[in-house]
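From the pipeline queue, job 12 of 40. The input is one protein chain; the requested action is below.

Action: predict structure.
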Amino acid sequence: MSTLAQRIAPVYRRLIFAGLGLILALAAVIGTVLPSLAQEPPPPPAVEFLTPTRAQFTDSVSMQIRYKHHGGGTNVLNLKDAGRTVVARFTLQPGARFPWHTHPGAVIVNVAQGELVYVQAHDCAQRSYPAGTAFIDPGHPHVHMAYNPTNGVTVLVATFLGFPADGPLSNTDVTPGDCGI
């Protein structure tokens, strides 16, 4: 009987050492992968106002803008008082996003660098705008969010139209879209 035990003992030792080796290898992989998965989230979009205040047209200005988002129906945006404007540059690092929000006026957005994905809460369609394109953000009550889907920096120049004399340019106290984003 001791002969059988002597023959089996080396097999068990090898299994134990193989198991310990596997555990150590797994610990090494987890030690290098988990920190990369727990990276800091990207910073929020940075804003630089290109106009020092909300500029006011010297004349009474109203506008009607007709626009169609990627194959959707035509929308008409009536700005009865488009007279107060703000221009700002937004810089989004890779993965950065604007939270769900709306605006008290309309915004013309020019993508100067990178790419922006714009999502409206009512349809959850992810509309992609690369550098050199522009789009209309109709403002209130259209709840939306946007994000930089690339590994590079995205830069936007936004012209806000028809905004009040003071107060925030966006409102994040909104019901977000149920878009799984």
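Job complete. Residues 68 and 74 are 5 Å apart (CA to CA).
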